[in-house]
Amino acid sequence: MNQKNKDFRLTARRSCLRLANIIILWLLGCSIALAGELGGRKRIGLVLGGGGAKGAAEVGVLKVLEEYGIYPDYIAGTSIGAIVGGLYACGYRANDLEELFRTQEWLSLLGDRNTELRNKVYEERDGTTYIFGFPIGKNPQKTEVEESPLGALTGRKVTQLLDSLTKKYDGIKSFDQLPIPFRCVAVDIRNVEEIIMDSCEIEVAMRASMALPGAFKPVRWKGRLLVDGGMLNNLPVDVVRKMGADIVIAIDLETIQHSAPTYSLKESLGIGGLVDWAVSRPDRKKAKANREDADIYINPQLFGYDATSFSSESIEDMLERGERAARAMDKQLRKLSRR
Q: What is the DSSP string of 261-297?
């Protein structure tokens, strides 16, 4: 065999090897892409902001997300968002939560009202004084219950309701063990520190996150005194990001961006803590950053409603407004649809 033929065969062999390598790399790339499509989809985080009765709008949004086949991989919430989010994480769905909002006697529930005494102007029973069924004070000589000056309402009825709804998950060690991993935000009122609650009795976490300073008594937990997380982080996008969310859907119930909280902190904080908080207003700074970091930001038009708008007509309208706000994001939601 002459040298010319040898060179030709060597060149052909090298070309075949290069072609084989290219085919192998192409097949490997296709396999990786396919694996990414099948098992490496982007994880969705749902963030539910605080706003009292306006949480009904969040349920309206959830109804639409379910229509699109969008279910979150992670949930984070504050205040009413912690309640809606916590129950959703436990397996309740939009229809269940809608029924809850429509059927509860919210005034009695939130006010710890004894409905048996609703028609009595004044009644004293078991050391507690009631006006039209609402507890307004306890006689220290007739009760051993420790009273806190930091709130008027115990929130006992709310806690009992949440406990009954989440009984199935009593004793879990982490909120990661829920059907959907969950976090909620509270604030240690003693040092004005944000607390991310990820383990304890879930009804306790939800109750702590909604403890509006001055209205509800704080929740004692691990030596801390916890109140409403909206004081520092009312739209916890950063929390759900840390949980692992790639795409964040945030539902913001605020009607005036950067507005001051509707509750007074003067009686809830020490002077030093109040001054520090009032000067720095970390809630405003964080709210702005979290809104900008959300991939899909839904802000239902809720002007005219506030945290106490629990009438049946208001609930019905806010549910519809939540639905409309979600449907306005049709293009973005279609991209996440799993249907």
A: PSS--TTTS-HHHHHHHHHH-HHHHHHHHHHHH-SEE
Query: Distance between CA 325 and CA 316 in Å, rounded?
Result: 15
Burial of 159-193, coded b for 16+ CB within 10 Å and e otherwise, reads: bebbbebbeebeeeeebeebebbbbbbbbbbeebe
Q: Please say whether the beta carbons of 196 and 286 come within 8 A.
A: no
For residue 306, the tally of other CB atoms under 10 A from its CB is: 14
In the DSSP assignment, the letter for residue 219 is: E
Mean pLDDT per 10-residue section of the chain, whose length is 339 residues: 55 59 53 47 95 95 97 97 97 95 73 45 48 41 38 71 90 95 95 93 92 84 91 96 98 72 42 44 82 97 91 95 98 87
Contact present, 207 and 79 (Cβ < 8 Å): no
* Cβ-contact 227, 189 below 8 angstroms: yes
The pLDDT score that the predictor gives to residue 307 is: 87
Is 0.85 surpassed by the pTM of this model? no
Residue 237 has φ and ψ, to the nearest 5°, of: -60, -40
Residue corresponding to tokens 């009686």? 267
**CB-count burial class (<10 Å; 0-12, 13-18, 19+) for 211:** buried
Helices (H), the chain: 3-39, 55-67, 80-89, 94-103, 106-110, 156-165, 202-209, 237-243, 271-280, 282-293, 312-327, 330-336
Tally the C-alpha atoms within 13 A of residue 330's C-alpha that lie toward its C-beta: 3
Length of the chain: 339
Structure confidence at residue 19 (pLDDT): 57
Cβ atoms of residues 94 and 61 within 8 Å: no
Cα(first)–Cα(last) distance of the chain, in Å?
Answer: 65
The predicted structure's pLDDT at residue 16: 59
Say what the pLDDT of residue 255 is. Answer: 82
Helices 94-103/55-67 angle, 10° precision: 150
Cα–Cα distance for residue pair 302/240, rounded to 1 Å = 25
Which tokens is 32 given? 């990786």
